């Protein structure tokens, strides 16, 4: 990744990415601890932050839940080449048992954005300017 800063969500660095020609500033979850925390306890993204990028060391089948996340999200699944495999709408969950959302295949990156904020299409590429 290129040029991370620390503005945004406490404990997360941020970086700029491009998806299908659209520039976004995202918090980066690139360690097991940060991926586990994700956007839990967040009711809205700080100004200037467009989402959170989950980075996996190796491509894997990934699963996510929305326990204690205060806003509905779309999750965008990217393979090892950075190609968008698809997306899933995820809804908030305040119950003890929440739905688990699983990637459609092995992914290297997963991008969470507020629901209905973007209209990326399968095959678009994730890049780092």
| CATH fold-level label | Jelly Rolls
CATH superfamily: Protein of unknown function DUF192
The helix content is under 10%
Q: Within the largest sheet, what's the order of strands?
A: 5-4-6-3-2-1-7
Measured between the Cα atoms of the first and last residue, the distance is 9 Å
* Secondary structure category: mainly beta
What is the CATH first-level class name? Mainly Beta
List the helices and strands and how they pair.
Blueprint: E1 13-19, E2 22-29, H1 32-37, E3 51-65, E4 73-78, E5 84-90, E6 100-114, E7 126-127
Parallel strand pairs: 2-3
Antiparallel strand pairs: 1-2, 1-7, 3-6, 4-5, 4-6
Can you put this structure into words, describing what you see?
With 129 residues, this protein is mainly beta. The protein has one domain (21-117): Protein of unknown function DUF192 (Jelly Rolls), CATH 2.60.120.1140. It has one helix at residues 32-37, and strands at residues 13-19, 22-29, 51-65, 73-78, 84-90, 100-114, 126-127. Strands 5-4-6-3-2-1-7 form a seven-stranded mixed sheet.
């Amino acid at each position: 990744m290129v040029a991370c800063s620390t503005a945004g969500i406490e404990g997360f660095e941020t970086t700029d990415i491009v998806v299908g020609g659209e520039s976004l500033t995202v918090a980066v979850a690139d360690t097991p601890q940060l991926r586990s925390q994700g956007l839990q306890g967040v009711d809205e993204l700080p100004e200037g932050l467009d989402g959170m990028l989950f980075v996996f060391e190796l491509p894997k089948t990934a699963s996510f839940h929305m326990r204690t996340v205060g806003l509905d999200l779309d999750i965008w699944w990217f393979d090892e080449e950075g190609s968008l495999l698809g997306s899933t709408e995820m809804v908030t969950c305040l119950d003890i048992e929440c739905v688990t959302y699983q990637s459609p295949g092995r992914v290297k990156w997963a991008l969470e954005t507020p629901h209905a904020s973007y209209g990326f299409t399968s095959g678009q590429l994730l890049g780092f300017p």
